[in-house]
């Protein structure tokens, strides 16, 4: 695929989301589908009601662009679409609960996220194994292990991106950086489908960031954050994890490194303190940076710089492998 198609996809996805967010925001105010400030929660940092509808613009922008460019519907595309619908639906329910000052139970969200991951597995987008660096042979993992690792990867990345959505511009910024990293990796590996999905993801997140940069005018809510995490996980499976060596397995992990490493730390801390590991709180890195004295923009810049460094590290690691 020529580079012009990637450029078209980037611009097209950006424009669709950029044009759709304002009308969806107006609809959110009419329906009272807004995230209201709460002084009793440390992680609620905004002071005005914010629309929670950017997720729908992101979803529409991604799939319209992808189908317009690729012009092909197969099992993998169907699984990606249905999985996205599932996440958008349960995320919307969760976001609606939040507009009423209530918390939606974690179990239904987990079940839906796992179900979306299973759809991807059944479509054939699977982590099958890796190349043995000593023998040069491809090690095919047992089917049960392929299933477990694929589901854990998709569920894990979906979750950590959602957990990172606590600061204006953060989840979108980290997703854009990770998407660009995976785009470069996919191009170098000759994975055109993965590269196309990655550059479209970059386009939709950049458009979203035009409205979500501090101070945010719109949120994507759990619906959008889980969808972006789901996309990143699938893109990595379709590209960076294909024909991987033991060393190159770290490429997608580094590409999405900030939310992965931060939330591993958070989960371990919650477990040791006897807290529910899936319950939202203010223990992520961005909250710790704010408590350390940084303002919102400074905390955002620090974490995006770290993410960029990790992304560059993953690209260097990939180049060493070629």
TrEMBL record:
Annotated localization: Cell membrane
Disulfide bond keyword on record: no
Membrane-spanning intervals of the chain: 6-29, 50-69, 75-93, 114-131, 143-163, 170-189, 195-211, 218-237, 249-268, 299-320
Gene Ontology cellular component terms for the protein in this record: plasma membrane
A GO molecular function held by the record: phosphotransferase activity, for other substituted phosphate groups
Membrane topology: Multi-pass membrane protein
CDD domains in UniProt: GT_WecA_like
GO biological process, one term: lipopolysaccharide biosynthetic process
Chain positions recorded as Mg(2+) binding sites: 162, 222
The protein's required cofactors: Mg(2+)
Pfam families linked to this entry: Glycos_transf_4
Keywords in alphabetical order: Cell membrane, Magnesium, Membrane, Metal-binding, Transferase, Transmembrane, Transmembrane helix
Name of the protein: Undecaprenyl/decaprenyl-phosphate alpha-N-acetylglucosaminyl 1-phosphate transferase
């Amino acid at each position: 695929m020529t580079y012009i198609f990637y450029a078209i996809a980037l611009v097209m996805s950006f424009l669709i989301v950029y044009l759709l967010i304002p009308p969806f925001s107006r609809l959110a105010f009419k329906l009272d589908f807004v995230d209201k400030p709460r002084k009793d929660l440390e992680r609620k940092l905004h002071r005005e009601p914010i629309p929670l509808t950017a997720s729908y613009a992101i979803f529409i922008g991604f799939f319209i662009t992808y189908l317009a460019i690729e012009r092909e519907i197969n099992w993998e595309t169907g699984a990606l679409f249905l999985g996205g619908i599932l996440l958008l639906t349960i995320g919307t329910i969760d976001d609606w609960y939040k507009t009423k000052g209530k918390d939606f139970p974690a179990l239904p969200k987990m079940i839906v996220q796992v179900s979306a991951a299973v759809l991807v597995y059944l479509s054939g987008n699977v982590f099958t194994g890796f190349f043995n660096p000593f023998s040069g042979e491809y090690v095919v993992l047992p089917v049960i292990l392929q299933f477990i690792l694929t589901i854990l990867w998709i569920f894990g990345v979906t979750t950590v991106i959602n957990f990172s959505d606590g600061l204006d511009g953060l989840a979108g910024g980290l997703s854009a950086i990770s998407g660009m990293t995976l785009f470069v990796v996919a191009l170098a590996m000759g994975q055109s489908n993965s590269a196309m999905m990655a550059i479209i993801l970059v386009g939709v997140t950049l458009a979203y960031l035009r409205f979500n940069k501090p101070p945010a005018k719109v949120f994507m809510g759990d619906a959008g954050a889980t969808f972006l995490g789901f996309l990143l996980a699938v893109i990595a499976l379709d590209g960076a994890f294909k024909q991987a060596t033991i060393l190159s397995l770290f490429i997608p992990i580094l590409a999405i490194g900030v939310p992965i490493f931060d939330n591993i730390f958070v989960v371990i801390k919650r477990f040791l303190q006897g807290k529910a590991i899936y319950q939202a709180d203010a223990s992520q890195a961005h909250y710790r940076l704010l408590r350390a004295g940084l303002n919102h923009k400074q905390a955002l810049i620090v974490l995006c710089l770290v993410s960029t460094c990790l992304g560059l590290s993953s690209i260097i690691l990939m180049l060493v492998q070629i």
